[in-house]
Amino acid sequence: MATPARKPPHVVMPGPIEWLRENLFSSWGNGALTISAGLVAWWTIVPLVQWAFIDAAWVGTDREACLPYANGACWPFITQRIGQIVYGSYDAAERWRVDIAFAILAGALVWLTVPGLPAKRSAGTAMLTLYPLVAFVLLVGGFGLEHVPTEKWGGLLMTLVVAITGIVASLPFGILLALGRRSELPVVKTLSVVFIEFWRGVPLVTVLFMAAYMLPLFLPGGLSVDKLLGALIAVALFSSAYMAEVVRGGLQAIPKGQYEAAQAMGLGYWQATAFVILPQALRLSLPNIVGNFIGLLKDTSLVSIIGLFDLLNIVQVGTANADWATPNTAFTGYAFAGALFWLMCYSMSRYAKYLEGVLGAGERR
Amino acid sequence: MPRANSIPWWRTRRMRDVLFQVALLLGVMLLIAAMVNNAAETLQRQKIASGFAFLDHTAGFDIVQALVAYNEASTYGRVLLVGILNTLLVAFIGIVITTIIGFAIGIGQLSKNWLIARLCRVYVETLRNIPLLLQIFFWYFAVLRALPGPRESWGLFDTVFLNNRGLYLPGPEAQAGFGFVVAAFAAGVMASILLAIRARAVREATGRVMPVDAMAAALIILPPAVASAVAGFPLHFSIPALSGLNFDGGLVVLPEFMALVAALSTYTASYIAEAVRAGIEGVAKGQTEAASALGLTRGQMLRLVVVPQAMRQIIPPLTSQYLNLTKNSSLAVAIAYPDLVSVFAGTSLNQTGQAIEIIAITMAVYLTISLTTSAFMNWYNARIALTER
Question: In terms of pLDDT, which residue wins out, A22 or B345?
Answer without folding.
Answer: B345
